Every structure is written in C-alpha cells, then in structure tokens.
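User: Here's a chain of 455 residues. Predict its fold as tokens.
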Amino acid sequence: MGNRLQILPGVKVAVLGLGVSGRAAVKYALLQGAEVFVSDIRSKEELTAQEADLFGTAGIHWETGKHTAQFLAQADMVIISPGISIISPLMDDLRFRSIPIVGELAFAEAAISKPIVAVTGTNGKTTVTTLVGELLKKAGKRVFIGGNIGISLFDYLCDPEGIDVIVLEVSSFQLETAGDFSPDIAILLNVSPDHLDRHGNFRKYCEAKMKIFSHQRKGDVAIINGDDPHCRQLLENILPDSLFFGVDEKFEAGISGRDVVLYPGSEKEIYRPGSTSLKNRIGLYNSAPAIIAAKLLGCSQSQIQTVLDTFSSLEHRMEYVANVGGVTYYNDSKATNTGAVAAALSQLEEKVVLIAGGRDKGDDYGLLRQSVSEHVKTLIVIGESADSIEEALRGTADIVRAESMKDAVRKAAEIADVGDSVLLSPACASFDMFTGYGQRGKVFKREVEALGKPG
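Assistant: Prediction complete.
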C-alpha cells in the first residue's frame, strides 16, 4: 500500500459536514477502528433524525453549530464533504498544521482493486454514469454505481463484497480533494463554465476537472469528447491512452446521423439508440463514451444495443412531463448552468417558452444569447437571478417575470401556442426557492399537471 491514504485502527478522523457523504464516512471510519470527530454547521436540533441517531455512538466526538480549527486539529486527517469549499481561513489553518484535507475519492487507491470507471464533465454525468452501469449489468457484471450521483463511495467501502466494477460520477468539487485517485477508465464528457462562484474562474474549474486524469498510469484509458473545444485545449495534460468520441470518423466512436459508429478494428460496429431519451443529439453524445467504456470491459454488441433500446430517461433531465392543449412540457431542472440550457434548447425544433432563473452560480448568461435567439419565443425569469438573466439576454426574446413556479407555469401556458414547447431549464441553482433541483422539478411537474384540472 505504500503511502496511499488509509484509515487504520486508532487513527483520528474528522468528518466535516454530515450530509450523504459525511454519514457514510463516519460509518466507514468507525468500521476501520478510527476515533471519529464530527463537525457540522447545523445545531444538534437542526440535524435530521437519521443524523441525530449518531449522537451517543461510541468513538464519536461532536461539534455542532460551527466548524473550528481547534476541534478539527485533534484529528490526523479531515474528510470534507463536497459541498464545503476547500478555500477558507479554516482550511488554510488546517493546511498550516499539515493536516490532510481529503474527500471520499482519495481512499480508492489503497482500498479498491476492482476496475473503476469515473465520469466527469459539466453536463450529462449522471446519465452516462447510469448508462455505463446498466450496460455492464446487462453483461452479467455486478456493479456499484455511486459518487456524485447520490451514493457515497464510502458505502461501497463499507460493504465491498460481490462487486465486479465500480462506476462513479465525479464532480469538480470531489476531484479537488481526490488525492491519488486513479480510475482505470476516466471519461470527460464536456467542459463549459459552471460553479464559478466556488472555483473563482473558468481556468480553475477546468483544472479541477482535469484531476480525473492526473494519477492515471500506463494501461489506463481516458475517453474524451473530441468535438468539445475546451476538452481539446486541455489534452496536453493527459498522459494515459486517449480514446475520442464525436462527429469524425477518426474518432474511436463516431456520431453519424442517428447512429454511434464504433471502430474497434478493421470492422465497424453500428449502434442506433432506440430509447426515446437517447434519440437525439445529446443522447448520442451520452451514448458514445458509454459504449466505448462498455466495450473495454467486455460487453458485446448485442448486449449494448439491447440497453440502448430500452434505457429510460432520468428524472429532471429533459424529462417529458405532459402535453396540455397541444403544448408539450419538459422538465430539465437539473440544467443548472448555461451549457446545459443550450444543449436542451438544441434538442427542440419547435418554438420554446423557456423558464429560467434561480440562485446565481457565477455563470455568464450572455453565453445563451445565440441559443435563446434561435429557439425561444418568450423567456420567463424567476428567482434571485432574474435581473441578471434579463439584463444579459435583453433583445433575444420577449422576457416576462414570474413570482413563483406556479406563476411561471400559468404564464407559460397563456403564452404558448399549439405546437410550442414549455421548457424548465433554469441555468441556476435552486436554493433560493427550493431545497434542490429535484424539488424544483417536482413542483414544476405538479403545476403542469394542475393545468388540465378544473378550478
């Protein structure tokens, strides 16, 4: 194991933030025989019942209502939740004391011997991670699917038996604290500005994304979007074998019309996604890297095609909601950056009433001017960022203000003509009005469903 990061009996481990990842980290550290220190910004009364159940557990010391260097400095290492920034006076203090600040991915190198597929990118991560997992399951492999998708890698480490392959969605936040994380197959889907409020600027965001490749070794594989200009600019830092996908026959997976064409040797293999959620441009770009990864791990062409025919779209990602009065409604609440909104609009040929807005993440809404001009007849803005979006997109479409999601859906229904689409694709985080993008999407769907009801 050398110097690779491990939790050994008697080691003092601090867990900073008691969310999904934090709870799993506590469980894993206790299983390894560590002494655990938990620090959460919430008061004891604000913790959920599941979190509060940990109080009184032997081997856990607590700090609630704040994070302090004095408490955390008792530990030999600090495991930080992805939602907490590594740039702060507190983090500087811990680094000054030479206390490692790490996330869940940093433990993979020492603890996992199974193949790891890691998927990152600004958009499409969850869909591709899920698709790779389904392809491998179809081939008879026992798969753990986790990471940023909502299941911590620590959950696998707590119970690793019976798993053949690990497939992880990894975010820029997780990669910042990934240590020597070295996936066997690393997939970079695309890069566009996102989370600039956290990273500070686009360059630093890109640097975080590229850490997915930084510890790969000879024999590992990088799968990269060859059509994405930002991905191409970052290639000089990639050391492992690189395979590409995009609209070019020189790529290992070429997108041609409605097909993905794989060139594994002298013969080509043609895949045509039959699932509704993959029968579009974005679906093809999601399918191509997943097919390459599946082939590398032993999936047959027939197994892959079967999954492509039946794969279901994920909730809140260009999800069809209903057709009400000849108007089609789509829930794309997961689109929290401008790149995702532009991708969503590119899939719709009809005129669009777009609902956007929420909590600003530092994105440049002006990047949407061309997409909105080409596809949107009316833009309905909501939330804290309404002023910024209206200013950036003034002149591209009619712009209307709404006070709530109910108000936005009602106004969209009044504006849309038969044959139009209404698209919720916010380009923002949701925390000004909702607990998360999931709740935002559910409220949108509820309001759409209410349109067809009397009263």
